Amino acid sequence: MSTKHSAAHDALHATPAPTRAQGTASALSAPAITSHCATSATHVAIEVVAETGSTNADLLARIGNLHGPTLRIAENQTAGRGRAGRSWLSKPGAALMFSLAWRFKGPLHKMTGLPMAVGVALAETIASLGVPVRIKWPNDLLRDGAKLAGILVETQKTDDALWAVIGCGINLLMPDELEQQIGREVASAPWLAQMDRNQLMAALLSRLAAVLDEFDDTGFAPFAERWNTLHAWQGKEVVLLDNGAVVQQGRAAGVDDIGRLLLDTDAGRVEILSGDVSLRLSGAPT
Ligand SMILES: O=C(O)CCCC[C@@H]1SC[C@@H]2NC(=O)N[C@@H]21
Hints:
Residues 32-216 form the BPL/LPL catalytic domain. This protein is α+β, with helices and mostly antiparallel strands and 286 residues long. It has helices at 2-12, 55-61, 114-128, 176-182, 190-194, 197-218, 224-230; strands spanning 33-38, 43-52, 70-77, 95-104, 134-136, 140-143, 146-157, 162-171, 237-242, 245-255, 261-265, 268-272, 276-281, 284-285. It contains seven helices and 14 strands. It has an eight-stranded mixed β-sheet with strand order 1-2-3-4-8-7-6-5, with helices on both faces. Biotin (BTN) is lined by residues 54-56, 77, 80-83, 86, 88, 97-99, 140, 150-152, 167-169.
């Protein structure tokens, strides 16, 4: 793992090093660069671009031609994708945005827990860097109750492999006009924005790679307890929304061994596989 850390660091340092004292997030690069880093078991191709539509869309479009795990980082996205067909909005330099294409042994049904395992990897890394975060099911990272980071996992089966493209967007800075555009309160992490962006990316990639390797062997079960420790709304009254409509309500009881949300409802415990969860305040969804 240490090999990968330093190699990733070197690769990302192929561009001018940003200064820490600037009030804006430090830039990763202007032109596209491609390099490689190695874990003890895996090589990860690294691509950095100044701007693209969506790093997830880019990797999915090339999935059959990828030679192995590939990390694509963009300083800006013009058509960022979010969960459930939503958009992910950002401004150049305001967020760390990347996608990691990773090949899995499968089977496909084991992948239901992957978004939650990724949430654990990101939350633990960000917390280790001094910004405590919690996870809202399935995998939004919250800071003081507001969304700091989002994760979009898209899977694709090719003739000979099962791939997942894991897209992550972490709000480092949140300019007022961007928050207005998003239309709700959003968290940011100026402390992470001041960090060397290359070190931040290297720390995230390092833990993510370790989690993905483990997940591929074991599935989600060993991550469930870690996820539950980070659960933002454990024991809280929540509602489950499907396209904005309330479809369930109950007390959030964490996730099970495959990453389903457990809800204790009046009719007993139910396991939730998809949807959006919101805190239930005074009987109304938030
Ligand atoms: O919260 C969500 O709904 C998920 C947001 C995921 C955003 C990231 S940014 C990098 C990658 N590329 C995309 O188009 N989306 C993900």
